[in-house]
């Protein structure tokens, strides 16, 4: 059976910690800690805005999370440095397994879409920079719904935008909150557990399959 595959972008296709190298020049050995705090707060701000009905572009969440991290970790980076870090976020690298993984599922006949909290312009820019734009059939952004994952309206928007139904769609994501959101609306899911130390949320819900990289996805889909 062939499916429509919805690939999360930040953290699944694109490495959000690709900013660490740039951070090292400004915060030294705190770069990894800074990057993790920045990412955690970015997601928290998107969750808050979704719940509050106060949508703002994901880049706003990213910038406000950067400002928070500077304050929280006592790293008063000057404005030009902050702008340079935001620029790096627009050209983050893909994970090493992504191109091969996308090629494999396309060869198997599946439809392939990027599905992101980021704006369409930001997502398409990331895909082009990473050389992935020819490996997807399109990109679906939450901006048309003015909310963020895991709002059910966002997943409904993906179905409408791609002409799919829930029974034929898989979400592929490294983010447990996204996997849980998709399963709550009846989608099949593949959790990409890139780090063996990462724990899936203990909500009594199990992903349809778990893979350690996207190069393992095609075989996983065949077995479900």
Concise overview:
With 224 residues, the chain is of the alpha/beta class. The chain contains nine helices and six strands; from the N terminus they run βαααααβαβαβαββα. The model has no long low-confidence stretch (mean pLDDT 96).
General description of the model:
It is a single chain. This protein has 224 residues and is an alpha/beta fold. It has 2 domains: 4-14 and 92-223, HAD superfamily/HAD-like (Rossmann fold), CATH 3.40.50.1000; 16-89, Putative phosphatase, domain 2 (DNA polymerase, domain 1, Orthogonal Bundle), CATH 1.10.150.240. Helix content is 46%, strand content 12%. It is built from 9 helices and 6 strands, in the order βαααααβαβαβαββα. The protein has a 6-stranded parallel sheet, with helices on both faces. β2, α6 and β3 form a beta-alpha-beta unit. α2 packs across α3 (58-72). The longest helix has 22 residues, at 31-52. The model has no long low-confidence stretch (mean pLDDT 96).
By CATH reckoning, the class of the largest domain would read Alpha Beta
In which range does the helix fraction lie?
40-55%
The DSSP helix count reads: 9
Low-confidence stretches: none
CATH homologous superfamily heading of the largest domain: HAD superfamily/HAD-like
**At the third CATH level, what is the topology name of the largest domain?**
Rossmann fold
Number of domains: 2
Mean pLDDT over the full residue set: 96
Overall geometric form: globular
CATH architecture grouping of the largest domain: 3-Layer(aba) Sandwich
What series of H and E elements makes up the topology? Answer: EHHHHHEHEHEHEEH
Distance separating the two termini: 10 Å
